[in-house]
C-alpha cells in the first residue's frame, strides 16, 4: 500500500522531510515555492547520504486536478520507498490531494492509498 504525506507549511524542517520520505516515500509540499523546495531536496539528499544513482529523490511539479481545478504541486518521491512512474505517481498524488482537501487541508496529513490499479483514478 502506498502512502503520501502532506507537509503543508512554507517552511518544513529537514528532519520532518527526511522522516516522511524514509517512512512513506511520497511527500507533497503544497505551500512551498520551487526554489526553497530545491534547496530542501538537496539537503535531504545529503542528510540521507544518497550519493549513488540507485536511490534518489525526484522533485516534481505535478499538474493535478482537484474539484475541477488545476493545481501545480511540489512533490518529492524517494526511490527507496516509491517506484516513480509519471502517470501512476501523478494519479496517486491526485487521489491523495482530493482526500486531503476533503479533510480540510491539515498541515500534516497521511493519505493511505487503497487502490491497487495505479493506472486508474
Please, could you describe this protein's structure?
- Helices cover 35% and strands 28% of the residues.
- The protein has a five-stranded mixed sheet.
- Helix 1 crosses helix 2.
- The two termini are 15 Å apart.
- The C terminus is likely disordered.
What is this structure's SSE topology?
Blueprint: E1 3-7, H1 14-24, E2 25-28, H2 34-47, E3 57-66, E4 69-78, H3 86-102, E5 108-112
Parallel strand pairs: 1-2
Antiparallel strand pairs: 1-5, 2-4, 3-4
Helix pairs in contact: 1-2
- Outline: globular
CA-CA gap between termini: 15 Å
Spatial sequence of strands, sheet with the most strands: 3-4-2-1-5
Largest sheet: 5 strands, mixed
Number of strands: 5
**Number of DSSP helical runs:** 3
Outline the low-pLDDT stretches: 117-121
List keywords for this structure.
single chain, 121 residues, alpha+beta, five-stranded mixed β-sheet, 35% helix
Explain briefly what this protein structure is:
By secondary structure, the protein is an alpha+beta fold. It contains 3 helices and 5 strands, in the order βαβαββαβ.
Amino acid at each position: 500500500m502506498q502512502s503520501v504525506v502532506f507537509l503543508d507549511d512554507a517552511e518544513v524542517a529537514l528532519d520532518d522531510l527526511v522522516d516522511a520520505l524514509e517512512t512513506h516515500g511520497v511527500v507533497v509540499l503544497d505551500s512551498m515555492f520551487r526554489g526553497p523546495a530545491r534547496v530542501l531536496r538537496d539537503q535531504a539528499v545529503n542528510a540521507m547520504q544518497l550519493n549513488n544513482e540507485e536511490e534518489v529523490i525526484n522533485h516534481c511539479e505535478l499538474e493535478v486536478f482537484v474539484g475541477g481545478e488545476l493545481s501545480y504541486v511540489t512533490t518529492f518521491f524517494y526511490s527507496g520507498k516509491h517506484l516513480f512512474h509519471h502517470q501512476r505517481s501523478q494519479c496517486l498524488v491526485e487521489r491523495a490531494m482530493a482526500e486531503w482537501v476533503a479533510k480540510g487541508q491539515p498541515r500534516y496529513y497521511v493519505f493511505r492509498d487503497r487502490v491497487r490499479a495505479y493506472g486508474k483514478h
